[in-house]
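Reply to dn_fold:

You asked what the input looked like. This is it:
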Amino acid sequence: FQYLKRFDQGCDLDRFWYEALSVEGSPAECLQLFLLHCGVVDPSWAELRNFTWFLNVQLRDCEASVFCNPDFVQDTLNGF
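and this is what came back:
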């Protein structure tokens, strides 16, 4: 949710890191963003769960990768 919210606001995500245990927005806002970005017109709860699980895994791996660390790659992959 934190990434999707900042993406919609046009923020630079290259320097953003997930903030564990921080609460942002309301449950309704969270659900609205998931529905907007999941890519399915009328998703089931299972489809929303799979979307959020997949997004979470990808973003966690991205944050853990040295190749996605802006301090390591500097400006060679800006916006990647």
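The two ends are 19 Å apart (CA to CA).
Hope that clears it up.
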